[in-house]
């Protein structure tokens, strides 16, 4: 670049170049990628995959997209026997970007259903649009705890309060007369996670070791806390029998690292996100011995999980999957069943899962789908799919079988106590026991 | 009353505040000179820190060689980064808002590239093995690396002060801060000084990233966090004032640690309240730095 060229023309040219570059970046970020390119419009189904592809939740979005695609691969690129085109879009930070992306998917691409939603914000933002257009969202991530009418919202994830609630009774028994120091980040997700633990823990007669008996909140603005030493030295002094916390991502890494560096020797219990996926990979030995509660662990011993972990590690250089992969994977299983169900017709009896149909969809086993392709029975629309979602029954998930709760449309599922331990070369959350089953 | 009496939760926390403050100073010193001398409010300053932190993560091998290599890399990356920014804003001279926009655009594009190249997950950077553990201070443990960082930070402060306030080049820099017109009229090449300060500030920020990575590790969003803190330090300390930046950085460091420990209930508002107080007092007494 020659700095002398500051004439109006070169400046204009530069502005145009910047504009074009920005446009290209935007377009490449939004462009869809298709799995099946058949153009037979009567056959093919379009699914909109809306996940964070930019911003602070990108890591979650990447995992969700990978999990959904992995399941689709396993299902032979078909859902309910129909070939599927997946159109991806960015939900950004969950507000304007999410709304624009969803509008484009629904109005322009005419998708049958949306899959995704990294954060509760996105679900909240999209909800009016779902009702208005009659397109269901299979939510795979954060989910607001209060949705008045969840008709078009079916989440394969969890409610934020459940994680803490699942371990409250266990920890109450474990500490006996001891007190628990509770600390978490001061934003809505953090308050839900921590509150989910504190309320049932107190109800069971537990007491907090924090000053004033209230949880300690670490600032989230103007920037998330990364300096935990002021809190850690206090925890060390408090004589607490255990610490319960929730952090995710970079904060989780810093919290655990400093917990070790400052020599806090109080047993550490946490919501499973503290040691999930990338956080655990970054922490390794520093996380050893942390107990967490979550609705999944890679070490769960069931056939669906063994198959899932094997497929994922084979496709990802031996890396292990996490909860976000599982929820997106399950979303594909849910859609597979629901689409078959909708095609079978609204008057069909309640779901009767064909045992072999989820591993290989051959014309012989998916009789309902081939019948529908001939136009004999049910019509496939957003409405019929939404109705069919209530009839999908039990989902054979890697986290153990679950089904949608009738009230909130979130999974009724088991929560597990896990301990960070070494398994060969990698660090895993080893399943210790089942804590409880929650969901509604 | 020996060492044991001195070691309590508050002194440990205050020590952390010093380490944190020195880190903030290393980052923000570059920015305050860039704003004061070149007049560029660079929104890409946090990006440079993040580049350094990723550099440290990529080259860390648990030994001194990795750290040395990362520091050498920081000089190169910082120089190129600073020169690149200087080239990007040169056509926009005397249009400060456009410069802010241009550097903001650079920061956005860089953030996108970082998460493409290094992934969106947080990374943990371990210091060289010799500095990795913790030492016992009375009943407490303290990470060795932070003690080391305090030592290096103090050296950096002394070096920077000598450079800006005692050296010949520093005198030129101060002249351009004080009165760019007069400096130019007396034959100083102000354009060159501006570019030089952008390059120097870039090298400082990337170096801070390499050294700070074990304290504030690389992950998406860290660039914004660092930018926010650097801007606070620059504004409170007075643009272009190294002395002011040092005081402000140490102050912010103490607020984020000792302040939080003393008044935990107000942790979220403490920084904002202290900023307000500092700005009000400075307005009345016209202490370090000149008004923007």
Rounded to the nearest angstrom, the distance between the terminal CA atoms of chain B is: 47 Å
Q: Whole-Å distance between the termini of chain A?
A: 62 Å
Number of domains of chain B: 1
Which of globular, elongated, flat, extended, rod-shaped describes the shape of chain B?
Answer: globular
- Class derived from helix and strand content of chain B: mainly alpha
The low-confidence parts of chain A are: 1-6, 26-41, 348-376
SSE run of chain A? HEHEEHEHEEHEHEHEHEHEHHHHEEE
Largest sheet of chain B: 2 strands, antiparallel
- Count of helix runs of chain B: 12
Structural class of chain A comes to alpha/beta
Strand order of the largest sheet of chain B: 1-2
> Quaternary arrangement of the chains shown?
heterodimer
Number of helices of chain A: 13
Mean of residue pLDDT values of chain B: 88
Tell me, what's the shape of chain A? Answer: globular
| Strand content bin of chain B | under 5%
Q: What is the tally of beta strands of chain A?
A: 14
Please identify which CATH superfamily of the largest domain in chain A we are dealing with.
Response regulator
Descriptive overview:
The complex is a heterodimer of chains A (440) and B (292). With 440 residues, chain A is an alpha/beta fold. Chain A folds into 2 domains: 43-158 and 300-409, Response regulator (Rossmann fold), CATH 3.40.50; 160-294 and 414-438, Response regulator (Rossmann fold, 3-Layer(aba) Sandwich), CATH 3.40.50. Helices cover 40% and strands 18% of the residues of chain A. Chain A contains 13 helices and 14 strands. Chain A has helices at residues 8-30, 58-74, 96-108, 120-133, 160-175, 188-203, 229-238, 249-261, 278-283, 303-315, 323-344, 367-373, 382-389; strands spanning 45-51, 78-79, 82-90, 113-116, 137-139, 153-155, 180-185, 216-218, 242-245, 268-271, 291-294, 403-404, 411-423, 426-438. In chain A, strand 4 (113-116), helix 4 (120-133) and strand 5 (137-139) form a beta-alpha-beta unit. The longest helix of chain A has 23 residues, at 8-30. Mean pLDDT of chain A is 83; it is low at 1-6, 26-41 and 348-376. Chain B is mainly α and 292 residues long. Helix content of chain B is 74%, strand content 3%. Chain B has one domain. In chain B, helix 2 runs antiparallel to helix 9 (190-212) and helix 4 (64-89) runs antiparallel to helix 9 (190-212). Chain B is built from 12 helices and 2 strands; from the N terminus they run H-H-H-H-H-E-E-H-H-H-H-H-H-H. In chain B, strand 1 and strand 2 (140-143) form a beta hairpin. A two-stranded antiparallel ribbon of chain B has the order 1-2. Chain B starts with a helix and ends in a 7-residue tail after the last helix. Chains A and B meet through helix 1, helix 2, strand 8, helix 7 and helix 8 of A and helix 2, helix 5, strand 2, helix 10 and helix 11 of B.
């Amino acid at each position: 670049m020659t700095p002398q060229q500051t004439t109006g023309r070169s400046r204009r040219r530069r502005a145009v170049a910047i504009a074009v570059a920005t446009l290209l970046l935007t377009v490449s970020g939004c462009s869809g990628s298709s799995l099946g390119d058949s153009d037979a419009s009567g056959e093919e189904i379009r699914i909109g995959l809306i996940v964070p592809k930019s911003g602070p939740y990108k890591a979650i979005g990447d995992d969700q997209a990978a999990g959904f695609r992995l399941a689709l691969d396993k299902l032979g690129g078909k859902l309910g026997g129909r070939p599927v085109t997946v159109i991806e879009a960015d939900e950004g930070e969950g507000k304007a970007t999410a709304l624009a992306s969803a509008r484009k998917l629904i109005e322009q691409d005419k998708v049958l259903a949306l899959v995704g939603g990294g954060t509760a914000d996105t679900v909240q933002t999209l909800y009016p649009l779902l009702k208005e257009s009659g397109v269901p969202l299979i939510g795979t991530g954060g989910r607001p705890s209060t949705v008045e009418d969840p008709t078009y919202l079916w989440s394969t994830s969890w409610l934020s309060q459940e994680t803490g609630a699942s371990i409250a009774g266990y920890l109450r028994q474990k500490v006996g007369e001891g007190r628990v120091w509770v600390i978490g980040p001061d934003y809505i997700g953090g308050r839900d996670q921590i509150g989910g633990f504190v309320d049932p823990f107190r109800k069971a007669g537990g007491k907090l070791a924090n000053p004033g008996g209230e949880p300690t909140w670490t600032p989230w603005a103007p920037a998330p806390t990364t300096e935990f030493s002021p809190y850690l030295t206090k925890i060390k002094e408090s004589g607490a029998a255990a610490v319960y916390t929730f952090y995710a991502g970079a904060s989780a890494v810093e919290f655990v690292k400093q917990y070790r560096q400052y020599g806090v020797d109080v047993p550490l219990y946490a919501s499973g996100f503290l040691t999930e996926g990338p956080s655990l990979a970054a922490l390794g030995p520093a996380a050893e011995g942390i107990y967490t509660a979550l609705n999944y662990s890679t070490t769960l011993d069931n056939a669906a999980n063994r198959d899932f972990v094997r497929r994922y590690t084979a496709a990802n250089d031996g890396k292990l999957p996490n909860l976000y992969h599982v929820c997106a994977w399950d979303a594909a299983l849910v859609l597979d069943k629901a689409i078959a169900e909708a095609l079978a017709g609204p008057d069909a009896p309640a779901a009767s899962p064909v045992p072999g149909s989820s591993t290989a969809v051959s014309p012989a086993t998916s009789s309902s789908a081939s019948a529908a392709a001939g136009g004999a029975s049910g019509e496939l629309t957003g409405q019929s799919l939404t109705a069919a979602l209530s009839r999908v029954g039990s989902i054979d998930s890697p986290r153990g079988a679950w089904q949608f709760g009738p009230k909130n449309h979130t999974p009724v599922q088991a929560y597990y106590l896990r301990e960070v331990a070494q398994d060969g070369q990698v660090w895993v959350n080893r399943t210790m026991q089942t804590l409880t089953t929650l969901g509604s | 009353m020996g060492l044991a009496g001195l070691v309590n939760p508050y002194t440990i926390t205050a020590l952390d505040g010093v380490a944190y403050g020195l880190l903030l100073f290393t980052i923000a010193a570059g920015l305050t000179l860039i704003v004061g001398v070149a007049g560029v409010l660079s929104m890409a300053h946090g990006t440079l820190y993040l580049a350094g932190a990723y550099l440290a993560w990529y080259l860390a091998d648990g030994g001194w060689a990795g750290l040395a290599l990362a520091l050498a890399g920081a000089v190169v990356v910082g120089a190129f980064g600073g020169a690149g920014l200087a080239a990007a804003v040169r056509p926009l001279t005397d249009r400060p808002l456009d410069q802010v926009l241009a550097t903001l655009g650079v920061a956005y594009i860089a953030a996108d590239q970082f998460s493409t190249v290094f992934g969106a997950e947080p990374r943990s950077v371990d210091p060289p093995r010799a500095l990795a553990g913790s030492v016992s201070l009375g009943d407490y443990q303290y990470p060795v690396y932070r003690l080391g960082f305090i030592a290096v930070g103090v050296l950096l402060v002394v070096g920077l002060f000598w450079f800006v306030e005692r050296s010949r080049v520093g005198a030129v820099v101060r002249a351009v801060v004080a009165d760019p017109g007069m400096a130019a009229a007396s034959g100083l090449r102000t354009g060159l000084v501006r570019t030089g300060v952008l390059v120097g500030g870039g090298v400082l920020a990337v170096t801070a990233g390499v050294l700070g990575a074990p304290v504030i590790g690389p992950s998406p969003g860290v660039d914004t966090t660092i930018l926010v803190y650097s801007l606070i330090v620059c504004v409170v300390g007075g643009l272009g004032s190294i002395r002011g930046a040092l005081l402000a950085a140490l102050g912010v460091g103490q607020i984020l640690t000792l302040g939080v420990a003393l008044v935990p209930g107000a942790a979220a508002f403490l920084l904002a309240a202290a900023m307000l107080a500092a700005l009000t007092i400075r307005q009345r007494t016209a202490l370090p730095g000149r008004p923007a």
